[in-house]
Design a protein that fits this description.
Blueprint lengths: L1 E6 L3 H11 L4 E8 L2 H11 L4 E5 L5 H11 L3 E4 L6 H11 L2 E4 L14 H4 L2 H6 L3 E4 L7 H12 L3 E11 L13 H8 L3 E5 L2 E5 L5 E6 L3 E7 L4 H8 L5 E7 L2 H12 L8 E3 L2 E3 L1 H8 L13 E12 L2 E12 H8 L3 H18 L7 E4 L6 H7 L7 E4 L6
Parallel strand pairs: 1-2, 1-4, 2-3, 4-5, 5-6, 6-17, 7-12
Antiparallel strand pairs: 7-15, 8-9, 8-12, 10-11, 11-12, 13-14, 15-16, 16-18
The protein binds NADPH dihydro-nicotinamide-adenine-dinucleotide phosphate.
C-alpha cells in the first residue's frame, strides 16, 4: 500500500485524482495545489472520501517540504506546470520521496524546454535510492512507451520514428487550447526541430506540413513541431536515423495563433500596464477558456501514435501503434476532455507501476527506459486501448 501526493488541480490533475482513487494500491491520497478550493471540488467529484486536500505553492521548496513531511507520501505525481518540476524534485530529495511528472522543466522567463536540467538530478536521486520518472503522460509518455515496446518486440533496430498527434475534436469555440494555454502557446509557437543523421535540424514554426491519414478520422494537415520526447528517444535509441513529431492544427487555430503573436499577446516578458507589471501571455490565459471547461461540448476523437520503420531479422518492416480517445467518453468518466484524459491516465498508471514495485530504480528515468509490457497490458483496461498495424504505408 502506498501514499501518493498529487500536485496540480487542473484538467490533468482531475483525471489523475479519479484514476488514483480507483486504484487500491494507494492507501492514502492527497491532492494539493495553489488554489485549495479547486482540490476540494475535484475531491468531491471523485467522492468516497478517498482524497485529502491541501494548499501549496509549488514554487516554494520550503512549503513543499512542510507538506511532504506532514503527509509522508511514497511518491509525488507532479501535474502542476513545468515551471515547478525542479522545486518539486528538490523537495522530494529533501524528504526522501519518489517523483513522477508529465512535462519537462521549462524556465518561466525562457520558452525553452529540454531534459538537461532534470537529467542533472540523476546522481542525487540515485545516491538517495529514490526514483524519478520523467514524462509519463501521453506525449511524452505513452509515445515513448510505444517506442520501447516496438524496440523490444518488433525491431532489431529502429531507423525512422514519426510520432503523430491528431486532435480531431471540435469544442465549438473560435479559439481555445486543450491544456494550460500558457504552456501550450509557448510550445506550438517555437521553431520546429527534428533529428536527422546525428544532428538537430531547425525549421521556422509550422514550415513543414503535410496531410496524414488518422484511423477512424481521415486526413488532417499535420505540422512538424519539436516535442520533448524526441530528445530522450534519440539518446536511448541511437539506431534512429530520423525522429520527427507531427501535430494537427486547424486553419482557424493557426490564424488565431498568428494574430496572438503579431499583436504581442504571446510575449513572456513582463510589461507595465496602468502601473502594474503583467506578462501578456499570462493575461491571455486569464481571458481564454479554461481547458477544463471545454469537455462538456467536445465531440470527436484524438489519435496519437508512433509510425516506425526499421529492421527485424534482416528485413525492413513498418509498424504503427496508436490510441484513439473519444472526447465524450473521457468527459463522461472524469468530466474532462480527451487531452487531459490521455495525459492523466498514464500518469496515474505510472505511479501505480511504481507503487506495485513493477517499475523500480534509483535515479532519473525517462519512461522508455522502463519495461513497457505490464504498463501497456493495463493501459487499455484503464481507458486507453491501443492498436498495432504491421507492414503498411506509413505516409512518411
Ligand atoms: P492546468 O493549467 O489546467 O493545471 C495546472 C494546475 O497546477 C492548476 O491547478 C494550477 O493552479 C496548478 N499550479 C500552477 N502553478 C502552481 C504553483 N506554483 N503551486 C501549486 N500549484 C500550481 O494544466 P493541465 O492540467 O492542462 O496540465 C498539467 C500539466 O500536464 C502541465 O505540466 C502540462 O504541460 C502537462 N501536460 C502533459 C501532456 C502530456 O501528454 N505529456 C499533455 C497535456 C499536458 P491554479 O488552478 O491555482 O492555477
Amino acid at each position: 500500500m502506498s501514499k501518493v501526493l498529487i500536485i496540480g488541480a487542473g484538467g490533468v490533475g482531475t483525471v489523475v485524482a479519479h484514476k488514483v482513487a480507483a486504484d487500491n494500491v494507494f492507501s492514502e491520497i492527497m491532492l494539493a495545489s495553489r488554489t485549495k478550493s479547486k482540490c476540494d471540488e475535484i475531491a468531491a467529484a471523485v467522492g468516497g472520501g478517498r482524497i485529502q486536500t491541501a494548499q501549496v505553492d509549488a514554487d516554494s521548496v520550503s512549503e513543499l517540504v512542510a507538506l511532504m513531511k506532514s503527509f509522508q507520501p511514497d511518491i509525488v505525481i507532479n501535474v502542476a506546470l513545468p515551471y515547478q518540476d525542479l522545486t518539486i524534485m528538490d523537495a522530494c530529495l529533501e524528504c526522501g520521496v519518489n517523483y513522477l511528472d508529465t512535462a519537462n522543466y521549462e524556465p518561466k522567463d525562457e520558452a525553452h524546454f529540454e531534459y538537461s536540467w532534470q537529467w542533472a538530478y540523476h546522481d542525487r536521486f540515485k545516491e538517495k535510492g529514490l526514483m524519478a520518472i520523467l514524462g509519463c503522460g501521453f506525449d511524452p509518455g505513452v509515445s515513448a512507451i510505444f517506442t520501447a515496446y516496438a524496440a523490444k518486440h518488433h525491431f532489431d533496430e529502429i531507423h525512422y520514428l514519426d510520432i503523430v498527434d491528431c486532435n480531431a475534436g471540435n469544442h465549438g469555440m473560435a479559439f481555445a487550447t486543450n491544456f494550460n494555454p500558457e504552456i501550450n502557446i509557448r510550445e506550438v509557437t517555437q521553431k520546429g526541430r527534428y533529428w536527422e543523421n546525428g544532428a538537430w535540424i531547425e525549421t521556422e514554426p509550422h514550415a513543414i506540413h503535410k496531410p496524414l491519414n488518422y484511423p477512424e478520422i481521415g486526413e488532417r494537415e499535420s505540422y512538424l513541431i519539436f516535442h520533448e520526447e524526441l530528445e530522450s528517444l534519440v539518446k536511448h535509441y541511437p539506431s534512429i536515423k530520423r525522429a520527427r513529431f507531427w501535430m494537427t492544427f486547424g486553419q482557424e487555430y493557426l490564424t488565431h495563433l498568428r494574430v496572438i503573436q503579431n499583436i504581442g499577446m504571446a510575449r513572456i516578458d513582463p510589461i507595465i500596464y496602468n502601473g502594474v507589471e503583467i506578462v501578456p501571455i499570462q493575461f491571455l490565459k486569464a481571458v481564454l477558456p479554461d481547458p477544463k471547461s471545454l469537455g462538456a461540448n467536445y465531440h470527436g476523437q484524438t489519435s496519437i501514435g508512433c509510425r516506425i520503420r526499421g529492421v527485424k531479422d534482416g528485413k525492413e518492416r513498418t509498424y504503427y501503434i496508436y490510441n484513439n480517445c473519444d472526447h465524450e467518453i473521457a468527459f463522461r468518466e472524469t468530466g474532462t476532455q480527451a487531452v487531459s484524459f490521455t495525459t492523466g491516465v498514464p500518469a496515474a498508471l505510472g505511479a501505480s507501476m511504481f507503487a506495485r514495485g513493477i517499475w523500480r530504480g534509483a535515479g532519473v528515468f525517462n519512461v522508455e527506459q522502463l519495461d513497457p509490457d505490464q504498463f501497456l497490458a493495463e493501459l487499455g483496461e484503464r481507458g486507453l486501448p491501443w492498436v498495432e498495424k504491421f507492414d503498411l504505408d506509413l505516409e512518411l
